[in-house]
Amino acid sequence: MSEESINIGWRAPSNIALVKYWGKRDNQLPENGSLSITLEKSTTTTFLSFCKKGVENRDISLKYYFHNEQVLPFEKKTALLLNKLVSEMSFLSDYELIFHSENNFPHSTGIASSASSMGALALCLVSMEEIITKIKLSKDDFFRRASYIARLGSGSASRSVYGGLVSWGKSESILESSDQYATPFPLHEGSRLKTVMDIILIVSAQEKSVSSSRGHALMNVHPYREARKTQANNNLTEITQAIRNDDYQSIASIAENEALSLHALLMTSGSDGLLLKPNTLNIIEEIKRFRERSGLDLFFTIDAGPNVHLIYYLDQRDQVLEFVNQTLSQYCEEGKWIDDQIGNGPQLLTTPVTN
Ligand code: PMV
After folding, report:
1. Do strands 337-341 and 196-201 pair parallel, antiparallel, or not at all (unpaired)?
2. If residue 25 lies in a helix (H) or strand (E), which one and from where to where?
3. Could you tell me if the CB of 34 is within 6 A of ligand 1?
4. Atom 4 (ligand 1): residue with closest C-alpha?
5. Dihedral, CA atoms, 108, 111, 114, 118, nearest 10 degrees?
């Protein structure tokens, strides 16, 4: 990079949805509202260096390094997003851009990283925009813009620019909700969800057989399409009510219904939509038995893959860790699981510096 290069760094977390976004229309707009928990430890860190191009050329020019290796598929995906953005961020074609990115969750754990990586990328781009345009946004406007940009890269990434609970998609039950960007979902003072924990049980670390973009596309022709929209919107209304009322049993049953519904839709979408493994079901059975026995408020959710998120509360940690070690870890690939929890959202890593 030349002398005038500027560096920006952001760390953004992954998130796990309790009400799932599944199906999209137009330019990455959701068919239904969703609500997620931002994680603390599963993050992507991205540094962006940029300097003025030496030559007159309006093409997007970028390099993308992941764990210090140039990765062409990531470069292609990023170029796709930047080309979408250039109509509103025209400065992007004036600079050479170099991204260096790292995930801190272990490789090959089957954890989708598009939410954290697109979140971190979007935050870097909005910081860059502030520097180039010399227009400093208010904190609210900054994160709203980052959420909007992240959404264009990956829908669930729109929720990764905030901490706590986050919703995305217009819903009458959530004030200021929007299809264009996500908004933080405030928890009241004594809400136990402020201490919510997530153990990610790695049933299989293999790449999933259906990409989420294909899964979303298949929803356009799915026979349950309309019913799914109604179900998701009802679940969102009910879970927001349950959260406000501290009704932890309802939160658990809605979240489990959402996870199983997502997989029911996947399984009936095409021939390769069966992503659950025998051990996914073994874990679900064990969780139900343990809940019955212990009376604890824990529950499961699952993303578009075979791994299970065991959601519980900090005050139950000792019993849950014992349960995971003694019972659940035997169903995990190489006994692997990730210990995570609700997080505070992204972090700016450097105040932009000129070299
Ligand atoms: O953000 P995408 O396009 O990868 O879609 C992800 C959708 C789910 O993870 C399955 C659900 C969600 O709301 O995060």
Report:
1. antiparallel
2. strand 24-25
3. yes
4. 212
5. -90
Cβ burial of 22 (10 Å; 0-12, 13-18, 19+) is buried
pLDDT confidence tier of residue 108, bands split at 50, 70 and 90: low
- Alpha helices (runs of H) in the chain, residue ranges in sequence order: 72-85, 114-133, 139-153, 212-219, 225-244, 248-267, 278-294, 317-323
Structure tokens at 26: 């137009």
Ligand 1 neighbour 156 (Cβ under 6 A): yes
18, 22, 42, best to mutate for ligand 1 pocket (most atoms within 8 Å of CB): 22
Cα 21 to Cα 31: distance, rounded to the nearest angstrom: 7
Number of domains in the chain: 2
Ligand 1 centroid to Cα of residue 236, in Å, is 16
- Tell me how far apart the alpha carbons of residues 195 and 313 are, in angstroms, rounded to a whole number: 6
Two tokens, residue 100: 């260096």
User: Residues 242, 323: one domain?
Assistant: yes
Is residue 146 a part of any domain in this protein?
yes
- Structural domain ending residue among the three candidates 151, 168, 186: 186
Would you tell me how many other CB atoms lie within 10 Å of the CB of residue 164?
19
Q: Among 58-62, 107-111, 285-289, name the one with the lowest average pLDDT.
A: 107-111
Mean pLDDT over the full length of the chain: 94
Measured from the CB, is residue 10 less than 6 Å from ligand 1? no
**349 located within any domain:** no
Nearest ligand 1 atom to the CA of 168 is 13
Tell me the C-alpha distance between 46 and 103, whole Å.
Answer: 9
Cα–Cα distance, 318 to 340 (Å, whole number):
14
Report yes or no: 148 and 157 within 8 Å, Cβ to Cβ. no
End residue of a domain, out of 186, 212, 239: 186
pLDDT, position 305:
92
126-172: per-residue pLDDT in tens?
Answer: 999 999 999 999 999 999 999 999 999 999 999 999 999 999 999 99
